[in-house]
Amino acid sequence: MSLWDALRVAVGAIVSNRLRSALTSLGLIIGVSSVIVLIAVGQGTQKGVTDRIRGLGTDLLFIESSVAALTSQTGGLGGLAESTLSQSDAEAIRAAAIPGVSAVAPLVTVEAQAVAGANNVGAEIVGTSSEYARVRDLEIRSGSFLTPLHDEGGALVAVLGAHVAETLYPAAEALGQELRLSFAGGRITLAFAVTGVIEEQGGASEVDDQVFVSTAGIASRLRFLRAPTGDLRATQIDVRAAGGADETRLKEQLSELLLFLHETPEPDFVIHSQDDLIDAATEVSNTLSLLLGSVAGISLLVGGIGVMNIMLVSVTERTREIGIRRAVGATSGDIVTQFVIEALTLCLVGGVVGIASGVGISLLLDGRELGGQAMTTLIQPWSIAAAFLVAAGVGLASGSYPAYRATEIDPIAALRNE
Amino acid sequence: MIELREVRRVYSPGGTPVRALDGVSIEIASGEFVAIRGQSGSGKTTMMNTIGLLDRPTSGEYLFAGRPVSALSSDARARLRGRAFGFVFQSYNLLPRLPALEQVELPLLYQGARDRRRRAAGALARVGLAGRARHRPTELSGGEQQRVAIARALVADPLVLLADEPTGALDTATGRDVMELLKELVSERGLTIVLVTHEAEVAAYAGRSVLMRDGRIVEDSGAVPAARAGAGAAGEPGA
Ligand SMILES: Nc1ncnc2c1ncn2[C@@H]1O[C@H](COP(=O)(O)OP(=O)(O)OP(=O)(O)O)[C@@H](O)[C@H]1O
Ligand SMILES: [Mg+2]
């Protein structure tokens, strides 16, 4: 019997049992499409995170206090109270003029309520220096960022992220307006003059929701931000490396300098490069992808067991048919071919429909809001290929054993008058 | 054409052996029409299955067209079965979901024969069912189903037709029609027919009558000279 004839026989059997065939394939359709969708979601999430890290700028190094890193987001100071870093560390790094460092800025981050007239919004206040605009490549929409004059002078000026500006001054131009910031649960309120608005960053960038003020301005007025030494604590110090600089070497140099400044043998800080962050995020989301993929893989396995189960039932039901086919000259090979092709066809149809629906669902989910966050899905060609191969493998595996059972059927017994 | 020598077939389901065939020797020449009679359980079906290569003797020799076939591989037996034998059963044994034309095509399918549709249509027409090609078994009467089965048995031009109580499920008149059809086919094609029956009227169509009891042949009217000469009618030594 030719393969083409075998295929026609198999399709005939599948079509004559429409509902059962459809339900059998459904298990596989669900398995295959969930493999594709879940991997697309996993990889999409990874892309979203790495894009965001890349969106911070280029060639960035982030120095964080190792203590604050452990206990971040405790209380209104967000770990600042325990930070081992200070503004003078940032100044020392700048003064050291390490080759390969193109800009340095400390970040003193504290939560506050921003009030302008009748509007108010909770915002993250970032005390920093004029260099931060260069560290992060910030584009200014109106006015200017903090200037070197502000770094020294201690004037109370504020530069607003785009969202903050839109919320507080929906109708008017923000520039030149007064902004009141209320710190420490309203115990200290200071009035700032708005001197600049930053261009919208988009892509869920935190800059849009921040207010930048000069460290000199807050150092004298917000005593609780200061360490016992009188130094202003810094949550983080951002360093921009010059293009082409050796980041590993730069990290070592920064580390040495800070160890010297902090007078400790063991570092009380950590230095991440953007690549480190991307690696960490990739690792996390690869684990996530693997987990999602295995869950989907299990559903594919269950689908395969369903096919095998139905094929076994089908062989038992068709005992007489098998006897008849043997009587008219079918070899055991013909019988095996018939059942394997039947299972394979069920699985491949399930696989193709599953791929189509998996791709369809992935495309539908892309960009949808889910729990306040935009989903990104990234369809992986390899996941399609893998799902298809698995479907074919499942077909072969789940057809083979029932087919073998079919050849074990004694044609004489199958044909005996009932 | 067919020669069984001291063929035994012992079934032993769960211990106690049953001798379905207990030393059967018979020679059937080409073109003979042999009726096999006997009580229920006497081994008639087992003998048919053995001749048709569906069953293998426990001991003894089976020569088909002069060639020993008991030792052939299962695949070789399947191919020989498809080419040389046609089966007709009491319960028709049609596939439930196939239309008549495709039922008849089945043996050709497994031979990988060409021109299958046309040959199958020809065989259907020969049994008078040209107008029933698209009908499924449930849409046919018993007599029509048995004709489809006969067309299927004949489509591949076999040498031997094996019929196990082909009229057993049919009323007398329809049974007679089926027997007339078989008789015509024998004379048309020089077909060898081995037919199991309980009815004397059916046995009367045969040129030779064999009686079985307890797995043995106890009576054989003897090989009458075959419808066609040259086959060398052989006498039968009896059991
Ligand atoms: N597969 C089998 N396993 C065990 N015993 C069997 C098997 N097939 C047949 N037999 C036994 O062999 C004997 C002969 O059976 P067979 O079917 O050849 O009889 P038969 O002459 O065709 O009877 P009937 O006229 O009722 O069809 C019976 O006793 C039967 O029980
Ligand atoms: Mg019988």
Task: Give the domain tally of chain A.
Answer: 2
Helicity range of chain B: 25-40%
Alpha-carbon Rg of chain A, integer: 33 Å
Q: Ends of chain A: how far apart?
A: 30 Å
User: Helicity level of chain A, as a percent range?
Assistant: 40-55%
Bound molecules: adenosine-5'-triphosphate, magnesium ion
SS elements, strand count of chain A: 14
Mean pLDDT of chain A: 86
The largest chain-to-chain contact, stated as pair and per-chain residue counts, equals: A-B, 26 and 30 residues
Backbone shape of chain A: elongated
* Spatial sequence of strands, sheet with the most strands of chain B: 6-7-8-3-9-10
What proportion strand of chain A?
15-25%
Beta-strand percentage range of chain B: 25-35%
Alpha-carbon distance between the two ends of chain B:
20 Å
Q: What would CATH call the architecture of chain B?
A: 3-Layer(aba) Sandwich
CATH topology value of chain B:
Rossmann fold
Q: Helix and strand string of chain B, N-terminal first?
A: EEEHEEHEHHHEHEHEE
| CATH class group of chain B | Alpha Beta
Q: Structural class, judged by helices and strands of chain B?
A: alpha/beta
- As laid out across the biggest beta sheet of chain A, the strand order is 3-4-9-6-8-7
Question: Could you give the count of β-strands of chain B?
Answer: 10
Give a quick summary of the entry.
The complex is a heterodimer of chains A (418) and B (239). By secondary structure, chain A is an alpha+beta fold. Chain A contains 14 helices and 14 strands.
